[in-house]
Specification:
heterotetramer, A: 350 residues, alpha/beta, Rossmann fold, 5-stranded parallel β-sheet, 14 helices, 5 strands, B: 338 residues, 2 domains, 7-stranded mixed β-sheet, 5-stranded mixed β-sheet, binds thiamine diphosphate, binds magnesium ion
């Protein structure tokens, strides 16, 4: 059927696919393990890329990508996941599944950084003929483990991989990121119950608790998501709660859960939708969810990111970021509390 | 979200003097809000996408009659079923693809089977949503919706007729699926007397609107393909081929008489829909024609594939959903006339 | 389309429908409130009817009907629900929805007893042209509030009714029975979360925790359903746990939850699938679930029921049943423990 | 559960000498167990109904490759998707109606779109399950399954061909939906050389089996309707009408050549399926015929209604799914030949 095509895009895509088609490039497993400063630098750079690519595309979900970018950075570059971008289907690889598929730009930035494809491809986000799709599509782009975008399915798919690992006596692990809004979907709880039944201790789920879904705060749309930690514990999971922008905390949690046995693990990560950048903090549901920044807003956001880039200059040892007002690393819990106070407690109670 | 762009090619507008109008989802949202004023039985159940489906207009004016069930389409539909059983007239709204695909069984058991007065409204239908890509595109919703016994399935062509359809849907008692779209859509039914329309938008459930007379072939279209059908007919006419154009806004129950007449009087049919060729308007027409008056048909639709992200116009072109695809199909089917 | 019909059945059905078609028979609300002995007698009689009608039909789900029959008896005849069988659509009626629709024979027995239709109709269970369907179908038979049989949907439907009551400022209540196997369905948890959001305090759910689903014990098929009380509490519900065959406990719980405000209520009822009757206790999944008893087995079950009918003779005051070996009223908890010990703790863990 | 009874009328068996055989679900269960021995990649994911789908045979022999996901069809299908992505060949099994209707979106995103090697098997198809009633009857599963791009949809007619279909399904790499039934079913493909069959059961995905030659009309059937089609052809023959009979076991991809040939050579078609007339075999045939060789068609199937509880034979009669309905349809369609 395809009858027309975007030549530029097609060219870029061809370059990527050639790279992987040869298969000659097979090599050992990698477990990239950058030092702490480098990780912060990476997360910072990927944040910039998320804003740039979505603003260029004119759409995409930058805020949803930014809230989980520190977690993704830790997973792919913090010595957590093992994989080989030269051999995306390597059977022993750890799997990552982005269940909240609309966060795709974040995942794309990470995969390009990891070497799955040429970062130049990020410029083709959401264009016809580009595999850099609005939502991740497996087999179209190396490194994508599942087609997502219909919320609620990724954790079940992850469980499938986890069960296959057990059958094949392989020791790979499976990581899945879900959204807090996504947690409304019953399938999440079906997967939760089934994973506990099968004691899938090779399955780690990270909840990107950024406190917003599409039409408002979780506190307004589905306040009964809380107490979320109690829910996952009652479903038989090992649960940890962290600040999802505190790189140390993220790394610590991801490493710690590897030692848990007979239980799948849930990391409840308190995050900021838009990672605290001011254009996303407008009192506007569309800015908070789903809309790309206009070029002038993007400039503000990028400038704020630059301001945050203190470690490279002041803190080469790579400890935590200074606690300035706009730091994405301030404890998300604080924000949670703030939102809890200002959000309408209930709607539609007549 | 991108700013919605029109799917109409400049040529359509120029050729036919059609003006670009609002998206059909916008028209639905406005009509729903208006009806909310006089019809107190209307309540809305939405799944965290009211800013997409446009039920937010209703929600703003009638917050106590609006229920946001979060991202849980199965629950949403069954809740609507309960509200209907208790005497309300609920609208159950989400993206078309999530509403139909994630809650099929709930619609079957809770709406279609008991014939409850639930109005399902799916926005973001078809591939013209563009950049968000295939996971968000409904290209199978008509196959699913028409499979339900007792169902009425409506696909309006433009904003004015969407308002009329919304009103008609609430006058009718029983399960309805209304399909709306995201892009700005050419206005076919103007109130100014152009394009053969009168002051009143003609809209009767189950009754096709004939927009153009012709005897060489009939183009039966729905949704955004109606404007393209008009453009195609215009082009064909310049080649000396006069095509009849039917706006088949109701896919179920189909206007059997209009289809039979088309088959008998024009001897060839082209169907055009922003949907898989399987299971939608084309199949409904093929079935009826086979039962009443066999004639050749060409089907314009998405040909057994999922689409991709991209600019709406580019996708419509790439997947074969343009006026020129309809022109080609018409020529082919005319050549096959016996 | 209907081209053939079963004359006998059609006649019986016509009689029922005529009764309700007239509409002349409108009367006041009823809240039947039988005394304790009468309730036990009712539950006993309905238990007999369940066995008789399913054995006659040659199929049906007697064990699933029996596990909840004491609860249904309490709801309809213990002063809990208000309704008017002469006017099945009376707007102020309390609603009952059998989410685990395969328990239909139990519901039919109760509705006939309540006067919704002639008990003679029970003989037509599952026959062509009879509205006494394999699973409940609304509008085919008076008193059926929802078409069920696809598991997982009834609680959401009940929430719809509960929200309508609030909108209309009516004070009716909604009761839903779900199964423990049914609790695997994600939609149950979607409904749970939504009902808590809307603080639907006019919604009561009873979990028929009979410890078996279709292919085995819950302990084997989905052990991670436990801790079930913790789950419902974490989902924001008011939870009570009772012996679902202890009529006093059932009545007490159903009355008590009426005073709960701002929270939907879950009554976790420990029950016995087959109500302890020996033919259902065979070590056979099909006897435990879904199969009707053969005539000779039915005789045994009926005889055991007769043995249990002690209150009418010995205990006219209507206190609890004597604790004999076969009493369906022995604490289900005991059984639960027993099953927990014998059931394989996990399957498919390779 | 009732003891499964045959849907074959005595007359079919007598007229054609067909023997009653096992249910197609039984045949599937046995074939699956056999294949499990040699194909270690096969795993099964079932939803607490393995004693209904007959995956319990496999479960018994290969407990470590069997996963009971409880009553949660959405999760079940997505888990199968993950298993397939990790290199397994999963069977995802449940009642046909729950598998398709409760997990449509999971099949769309996790199986059809990525073309993963998942075999969906739905038992308890059609109204011949009888007493359990309409909530458990799949009469729309073919409409749903054929709507998926990249899908193969198979409806075998009897136990021997179900075994052959099961083997073929695993030889083919990609998403398949296999529909099985609950009642005992007449044996059409005997191994003893009767009924025109040879030692090998002829079964090729996408290739219809012609069971009877004739030029007056073609009866295209699937599932339990194939035996009825043979009976109808026998009756018609006694009236001097020779009907061609095609076992169209694969609904998607359709055997376009066989259908086109039937249209060209016999000029009239009857389709027969235990499914809604909408969306299944009939629509697939009507579409192809409209594109290639328009001829009159009569559709035998459930006519836009849900059914009811009852004895299987009585229901098939009441809802118009018998050999005599096929005979009537054949006579009508022949009268309409041009
Ligand atoms: C099944 C389904 N329903 C609805 C949507 C539309 N949708 C896309 S994103 C979104 C909100 C997601 O919120 P959350 O999970 O909190 O993700 P966040 O963007 O906050 O990380 C919704 C409703 C969808 N993609 N899938
Ligand atoms: C959606 C769905 N999946 C599967 C079935 C088949 N089925 C009928 S009853 C049953 C077991 C139900 O177990 P439970 O909820 O514990 O009910 P019980 O009979 O024990 O009361 C199953 C799997 C169904 N009816 N609906
Ligand atoms: Mg969120
Ligand atoms: Mg149970």
């Amino acid at each position: 059927m395809p009858q027309s095509s975007n030549e530029q895009v097609v060219e870029k895509v061809a370059a990527v696919l050639n790279k992987h088609a040869s298969g000659a490039n097979k090599s050992e497993a990698m477990v990239p393990n950058r030092d702490f400063t480098a990780l912060q630098e990476t997360a910072w750079r990927l944040s910039r890329e998320i804003i740039e690519m979505t603003t260029k595309a004119g759409s995409g979900h930058p805020s949803s990508s930014l809230s989980m970018i520190d977690i993704l950075t830790a997973l792919y570059f913090g010595g957590v996941m093992r994989y080989n971008p030269q051999e995306p289907h390597w059977e022993e690889r750890d799997r990552f599944i982005l269940s909240k598929g609309h966060g795709a730009p974040g995942l794309y930035a990470v995969l390009a950084e990891a070497g799955y494809f040429n970062p130049a491809l990020l410029d083709t986000l959401r264009q016809t003929d580009s595999p850099v799709e609005g939502h991740p599509i497996m087999n179209r782009l190396p490194g994508i483990e599942a087609s997502t975008g219909s919320l609620g399915q990724g954790l079940s798919i992850g469980l499938g991989h986890a069960l296959a690992a057990r059958l094949d006596k392989r020791d790979y692990r499976v990581y899945v990121i879900i959204g807090d809004g996504e947690s409304d979907e019953g399938q999440i709880w079906e997967a939760a119950m089934a994973a506990a039944k099968y004691q899938a201790d090779n399955l780690t789920c990270i909840l990107d608790l950024n406190q917003f879904q599409q039409t408002g705060s979780v506190n307004k749309v589905m306040p009964s998501l809380e107490p979320v930690v109690d829910k996952w514990e009652a479903f038989g999971w090992h649960v940890r709660e962290i600040d999802g922008h505190d790189m140390e905390a993220v790394l610590e949690a991801l490493r710690a859960v590897k030692t848990v046995t007979q239980q799948p693990q849930m990391i409840v990560a308190h995050t900021l939708k838009g990672r605290g950048l001011s254009p996303f903090e407008k009192n506007d549901v569309n800015r908070k969810h789903g809309e790309a920044l206009k070029p002038e807003e993007a400039e503000i956001a990028l400038a704020e990111l630059d301001e945050q880039r203190t470690w490279a200059v002041y803190d080469p040892a790579g400890s935590r970021l200074p606690n300035n007002e706009r730091s994405a690393n301030r404890l998300a819990k604080e924000i949670v509390t703030r939102q809890g106070e200002t959000g309408k407690p209930m709607e539609n109670k007549s | 979200m991108t700013t919605a762009k029109s799917t109409q090619t400049k040529s359509t507008e120029q050729a036919l003097g059609l003006k670009e109008g609002p998206a059909t989802r916008d028209a639905f949202g406005e009509a729903l809000r208006e009806l909310g004023r006089t019809n107190a039985k209307i309540v809305v159940v939405d799944g965290d996408v009211s800013n997409s489906t446009r039920t937010e207009y209703f929600a703003k004016d009638f917050p106590e009659r609006f229920f946001n069930m979060g991202i849980a389409e199965s629950n949403l539909v069954s809740v609507a079923s309960g509200l209907a059983a208790a005497g309300k007239t609920p609208v159950a709204a989400s993206f078309a693809v999530f509403l139909l695909c994630n809650a099929y069984d709930q619609i079957r058991m809770g709406v279609a089977f008991p014939k409850l007065d639930v109005k399902l409204v799916g926005s973001h239908s078809g591939i013209s949503i563009g950049e968000d890509g295939p996971s968000q595109m409904a290209i199978e919703d008509l196959a699913l919706a028409t499979s339900f016994p007792n169902f009425t399935v409506i696909v309006p062509a433009d904003a004015p007729s969407t308002k009329a359809a919304t009103r008609a849907m609430f006058e009718y008692e029983g399960p309805v699926y209304l399909r709306t779209g995201r892009p700005k859509t050419a206005i076919i039914y103007a109130n100014d007397g152009t394009n053969g329309s009168t002051e009143e938008i003609p809209f009767e459930i189950g009754k096709a609107n004939q927009l153009r007379e012709g005897n060489a072939v009939t183009i039966i279209a729905c949704g955004i393909m109606v404007a393209m059908a008009l453009e195609a007919a215009h082009t064909l006419s310049q080649n000396g081929i006069e095509a009849r154009v039917l706006d088949m806004h109701t896919i179920k129950p189909l206007d059997n008489e209009a289809v039979e007449r088309a088959a008998r009087e024009t001897g060839a049919i082209v169907t055009a829909e922003e949907h898989l060729i399987t299971g939608g308007l084309g199949d409904a027409v093929a079935r009826l024609v086979a039962m009443r008056q066999p004639v050749p048909i060409q089907f314009v639709g998405v040909n057994d594939t999922y689409a991709e992200s991209g600019e709406a116009q580019a996708l419509l072109k790439k997947y074969g959903l343009t006026a020129s695809n309809i022109v080609d199909a018409a020529k082919q089917v005319i050549a096959r006339k016996s």
